[in-house]
């Protein structure tokens, strides 16, 4: 009785670890399929890239401008105005937008828009037994379906991160103008604190976010069951797990970057 109760108590954790292990296996198979010839996924890669870009660019524009103007913009400006240091807002945006805000918002938008579409698509194929039919015909679903989505999401999140940086910083400019301040101080502290490490770290981190989203959503889609309701459940689980993976990886990556490059830790 005690053992059965313990098994029921630890069952969610057991299932989580099993799924994480299976996702790591899928990651390895995807990487091998990516570099191993032949490469039949060129057309699908372009199609998935354009699909994700088309769905994500406008929500990302609205999100980055609104959040950049609100939280790190007006709130930080309100705090800095107490010390007469509104010209430091540009340096704060390197800390808030380039390192954290833009990559995380990009990942959230891509996971919520493109990631859910991937899970729904692969989940519907699984329910209709198309994946099993491909395997019977000798066609590898990972190489032909997962790899193009994996590569396209990595590329599109890296590019959208640059897009998010531009519009996120523009939100800070609007906040500076709202307080009636000249933009010279904003740009001076922005460029004084910006570094190549911040930029490549932001783009690399977001690119890896895309890889995490693609693997999680592909795994949940390819293991969906239970008809249309099962596909809906897989979509919900996929986006939640993708968010958790992104946030956890973001913490580890940022702390590692700061530990290896201590010169970028302070605002000048």
Oligomer: single chain
Shape: elongated
Order of helices and strands: HHHHHHHH
Helix amount, in percent?
A: over 70%
Radius of gyration: 21 Å
Mean pLDDT across all amino acids: 84
- Class computed from helices, strands and strand pairing: mainly alpha
Poorly predicted sequence stretches spanning 5 or more consecutive residues: none
Distance between the termini: 62 Å
- Beta content comes to under 5%
How large is the count of helical segments?
Answer: 8
Major sheet details: none
The count of DSSP E runs of length 2 or more, i.e. the number of strands, is: 0
State the domain count: 1
Give me the secondary-structure topology:
Blueprint: H1 2-35, H2 42-81, H3 89-127, H4 130-136, H5 141-178, H6 184-193, H7 196-222, H8 227-260
Task: Spell out the key features of this protein.
268 residues; mainly alpha; elongated
